[in-house]
Specification:
elongated; four-stranded antiparallel beta sheet; 0% helix; mainly beta; 144 residues; four-stranded mixed beta sheet
Length: 144
């Protein structure tokens, strides 16, 4: 068999459509005039530790900002952040939902947030190469 490539930390990406989280006043979903709060992810990071030829542990982080909309007011908001470790072909082998709290102080209209998670440990099957996996991060609109 051909030699395996050097093991590298899999790439990290924000899955399309999950970079923004929005909450609207009841009954007005999608109407910008009724936006309560909007969150956006602006930075991601990951760090890997390897054990043997197949074991990988991934610590990940996200950072971003929360903005109040026309119907919003200062307070604490809980952002549903999903991390999914995906093998080539799109199958998620690990998934994690974390709830990140961010407070917009009185007199302010925005706040920054950051969160670091110990993340995942996974044994990559011998037929796969960990370099070909992807760690997707983003908001889970359904919060499941």
């Amino acid at each position: 068999p051909p030699p395996r490539p050097d093991i590298e930390c899999p790439s990290v990406a924000v899955r399309d459509g999950t970079e923004t989280w929005r909450v609207y006043s009841s009954g007005h979903d999608g109407d910008p005039a009724y936006l309560v709060v909007q969150g956006s992810i602006t930075k991601t990071a990951r760090e890997c530790a390897f054990s043997g030829q197949t074991g990988v542990s991934i610590k990940y982080g996200v950072a971003g900002r929360v903005l109040l909309g026309p119907k919003g007011s200062p307070g604490t908001f809980t952002l549903p952040v999903r991390a999914a470790f995906v093998r080539p072909g799109g199958e998620a082998v690990q998934s994690d939902l974390v709830r990140v709290s961010v407070t917009v102080p009185a007199g302010e209209s925005r706040a920054d947030f950051s969160h670091v998670s110990e993340g995942f440990s996974y044994d990559v099957p011998p037929e796969d190469i960990v370099n070909n996996y992807v760690l997707y991060l983003g908001f889970d609109q359904k919060g499941r």
